[in-house]
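Translate structure to sequence.
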């Protein structure tokens, strides 16, 4: 029976240990499953955030593409307007050059005849010269009037200034001077001014095209860099927060594990102390029972009548002591088995706690190092983003200035063409008046020569 009971106890202890081991494995497996599910949820959240960032980036890209297309169309229109304006300005310069050439060719003979003949004429002919001079003055003043009306109609300040200078030149003309010389000089200066304006416009357009293109490229580059850095900052900050949360959880688990191990150590120490004390008492009791049994057996084993008369009582006492010895031995065996089982469980749990503690401590170490590195990277990336944002703000400010000086805000090309045609037509009319008067002077000079002859 003792052997069967001992076998049953061992089997029960083995079953309990196996059950506890399987329960622990199931518990650890459930914990791993929960962690995996949490990690999966976090990954899905990160994926959703990344998809949202991708959608925003795609939207920004589409907007930038549309803006680029609009800007390209605007630049193409401005380029076409500039080319048309340059062509119109060239035609205007050609017209003015032709007018200047006509004046030079038509009035040179009149000048020589009118002013050369004046030195050969008699006093009677000088009166005719005075009347011719008055007619030229009328022609000049008519040309000035036309130019002034044209300036008033078109609102061109250059024509207004030209009319004023023509009137001043006519008023200050000296006797015997060429009445068309000053006007030709004014037209020449105007042609030179138009040429300089055309060159300045061409240089300004080239400068604007280059600076607008470079600034737009820098804007796109800086904007993309800011978006990229912002995405990196958000990703690293999110990962750092997750690592900090995991580290805090691990540290709490380590504290709980340390506290649990300390409680186990205390309980184990108490159990061990109690077992030693109880075992000592049981060993002493068993030894005492064995000694008493030996004494009684030796006594009752003697061969005399007195002992024979006490056989009945002696067998009862010996049997009772044997039962007591068996109970003491059984109790000691149970105490020993319980102590061994408790010690084995304690050792197993302690080893498991030690492994778990070492694993968690290493995990805390690596996670702490990782989130500190991420925090440093976030700080550095934020600094880079701040610098890039400042550069982007400077580019945007410069683009604003370029818009003020480069984006056309003047009248449309068709209006400028119409106004310029009116100016050219009016100037041609004024030149026709001056040319007609020059021809008249030439004819009158020829008549004076015939009269003298």
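Result:
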């Amino acid at each position: 029976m003792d052997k069967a009971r001992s076998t049953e106890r061992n089997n029960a202890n083995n079953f309990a240990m196996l059950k506890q081991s399987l329960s622990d494995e199931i518990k650890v497996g459930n914990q791993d499953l929960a962690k995996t599910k949490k990690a999966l949820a976090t990954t899905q959240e990160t994926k959703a955030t990344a998809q949202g960032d991708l959608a925003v980036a795609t939207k920004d890209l589409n907007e930038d593409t549309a803006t680029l297309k609009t800007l390209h169309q605007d630049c193409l229109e401005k380029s076409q307007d500039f080319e048309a304006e340059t062509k119109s300005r060239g035609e205007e310069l050609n017209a003015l050059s032709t007018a200047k050439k006509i004046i030079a060719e038509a009035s040179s003979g009149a000048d020589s005849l009118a002013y050369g003949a004046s030195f050969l004429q008699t006093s009677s002919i000088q009166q005719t010269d005075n009347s011719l001079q008055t007619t030229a003055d009328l022609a000049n003043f008519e040309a000035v009037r036309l130019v002034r009306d044209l300036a008033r109609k078109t609102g061109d300040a250059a024509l207004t200034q030209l009319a004023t200078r023509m009137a001043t030149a006519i008023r200050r003309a000296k006797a015997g001077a060429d009445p068309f010389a000053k006007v030709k000089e004014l037209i020449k200066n105007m042609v030179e001014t138009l040429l300089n304006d055309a060159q300045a416009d061409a240089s300004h357009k080239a400068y604007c095209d280059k600076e607008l293109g470079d600034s737009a490229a820098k804007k796109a580059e800086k904007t993309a860099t800011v978006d990229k850095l912002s995405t990196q900052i958000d990703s690293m900050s999110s990962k750092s927060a997750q690592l900090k949360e995991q580290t805090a959880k691990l540290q709490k688990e380590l504290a709980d594990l340390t506290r649990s191990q300390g409680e186990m150590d205390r309980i184990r120490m108490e159990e061990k102390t109690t077992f030693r004390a109880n075992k000592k008492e049981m060993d002493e009791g068993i030894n005492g029972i064995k000694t008493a049994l030996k004494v009684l057996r030796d006594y009752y084993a003697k061969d005399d009548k007195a002992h024979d008369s006490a056989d009945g009582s002696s067998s009862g006492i010996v049997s009772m002591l044997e039962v007591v010895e068996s109970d003491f031995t059984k109790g000691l065996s149970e105490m020993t088995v319980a102590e061994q089982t408790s010690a084995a469980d304690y050792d197993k749990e302690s080893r498991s706690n030690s492994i778990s503690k070492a694993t968690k401590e290493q995990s805390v170490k690596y996670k702490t190092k990782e989130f500190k590195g991420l925090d440093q990277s976030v700080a550095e990336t934020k600094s880079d983003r701040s610098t890039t944002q400042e550069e982007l703000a400077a580019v945007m400010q410069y683009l604003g200035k370029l818009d003020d000086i480069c984006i056309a805000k003047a009248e449309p090309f068709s209006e400028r063409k119409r106004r310029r045609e009116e100016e050219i037509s009016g100037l041609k009319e004024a030149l026709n008046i001056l040319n007609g008067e020059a021809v008249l002077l030439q004819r009158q000079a020829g008549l004076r020569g015939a009269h003298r002859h």
